[in-house]
Design a protein that fits this description.
Helix content: under 10%
Number of strands: 26
Structural class: mainly beta
Number of helices: 0
Order of helices and strands: EEEEEEEEEEEEEEEEEEEEEEEEEE
Distance between the termini: 53 Å
Length: 426
């Protein structure tokens, strides 16, 4: 008998979103002489002039910032001087055209800068911690036809049937497979340096698989499984970050309990255009199945019967990859949008997937990111794979246990996911 692997959550190549920050916090405030200069080399300059004493909010390169100019009023006993009010343009203070007296005048400047926690290139500065708690619900389903089947006897007390093909026939039985998963995943990242972070992850999930809508009127079968099933560790390195470009590399190891070990690498490269970052993503993963050489959608019942609609058989090592484009944009101080279009090769099928997210950030250290994704195209439709059915006390056979295997054909395939991420930075 072939060994199998239940791999419902296997190959989760969705981006590892780790909370963290760079260019985060407030510009130090202080008193300056008559012509202070605020450095702005980490973001594009605004290009909009402010009148003296004005207050204007600006979003540039995904940063929200404001820059009021406050003027120092001489205290009692101090000499009052005539001076030009300071104006602000392109991130620098300057005086008007009047000739100034050679005296020192003090002004006070504060700059608020806010990095958005839902940004796809977000990670913590050295010594800081980021947390992403991801609550998600996902579902996939497909209609299928059982095309043929061969029955193998497994009862050693029935010599005439034991380890023999005792029946083989073409059949046409239709049904529907449905898998749903609720998951809570925690990614905890720590800034080893300002550009390198360590990431730890764990996931609790509850999965339910159902085979239903049998054409012969058979009752549905459902199997549920829950627990802490995924653990991982990895590194993120933002090795390019200037006013135009940002590039990040990622490497992770994930262990899925009783299923597989996966090594994953990814590169993201973004180009900054005003309030938007347009980026590309490439990922590749290698997976080793730790239990058996078959993986797929699996159901068992208390009687001991089980069935698997396999996705692939006679396999131990699996290579997968995906690539795509995304865009992240700042709407205002509190809201962001993110969209991604990904195409992936997932061992036995290819898929085109679209994802959208709305970020809400009421504070510098907390944000919510609501997202949804769905499949636009999947090559699983029309594919023929292998099913395996283990039957205790079957009708019509002398053997007390039989093993049926054959081909099934996928007629439809649908998949979608919704979720919310609670992101903290401290």
């Amino acid at each position: 008998m072939k060994k199998y692997t239940l791999a419902l959550a296997l190959f989760a190549l969705a981006p590892i979103v780790s909370a963290g920050a760079y260019e985060y916090g407030q510009q130090p405030s202080g008193y300056y002489s008559a012509r202070p200069v605020v450095k702005t080399n980490t973001y594009k300059k605004s290009g909009s002039a402010r009148k003296s004493g004005s207050y204007n909010n600006v979003v540039t390169n995904n940063f929200y910032y404001n820059q009021p100019a406050q003027y120092y009023k001489p205290k009692s006993g101090e000499t009052s001087h005539n001076y030009d009010k300071l104006n602000y343009n392109d991130g620098n203070y300057y005086t008007g055209n009047k000739k100034q007296e050679n005296r020192t005048i003090k002004s006070y400047s504060v700059q608020e800068r806010k990095f958005f926690l839902a940004h796809p290139f977000f990670q913590p500065l050295k010594g800081h911690v980021g947390s992403v708690t991801d609550f998600s619900y996902a579902r996939n389903n497909f209609d299928f036809d059982l095309i043929n089947g061969s029955v193998l006897g497994l009862d050693p007390t029935v010599a005439s049937e034991y380890n023999q093909i005792i029946d083989s026939q073409n059949i046409l039985v239709s049904g529907k497979e449905e898998t749903s998963m609720f998951a809570v995943k925690e990614d905890l990242s720590y800034g080893l340096t300002d550009t390198l972070s360590l990431v730890l992850m764990a996931q609790y999930d509850k999965t339910k698989v159902t085979f239903k809508d049998w054409s012969g009127g058979e009752p549905s079968d459902t199997f549920s499984n829950s627990g802490l099933n995924l653990f991982g560790i990895g590194l993120q390195n933002r090795f390019v970050d200037n006013k135009n470009w940002i590039v990040m590399g990622e490497a992770f190891f994930q262990h899925q309990k009783d299923t597989a070990n996966t090594f994953m690498g990814a590169v993201k490269a973004g180009y900054k255009i005003d309030t938007t970052t347009v980026y590309g993503i490439g990922r590749i993963s290698y997976t080793n199945l730790t239990k058996g050489d078959v993986y797929g959608s699996y159901v068992e019942n208390p009687s001991g019967d089980w069935m698997i609609l396999s996705y692939n058989t006679d396999v131990k090592d699996i290579l997968q990859g995906e690539g795509g484009l995304g865009a992240f944009t700042v709407l205002n101080k509190y809201f962001t949008l993110n969209g991604e279009l990904m195409y992936g090769y997932y061992d036995w099928h290819n898929q085109l997937n679209i994802k959208g997210a709305l970020g809400v950030q009421p504070a510098d250290s907390f944000a919510l990111n609501l997202y949804a994704s769905t499949v636009l195209y999947d090559s699983a439709k029309g594919k023929t794979r292998q099913y395996i059915n283990y039957d205790v006390d079957p009708d019509g056979y002398a053997s007390s246990v039989v093993y049926t295997f054959g081909d099934y054909k996928i007629k439809k395939y649908n998949e979608w996911k919704v979720g919310v991420q609670a992101i903290l930075y401290f």
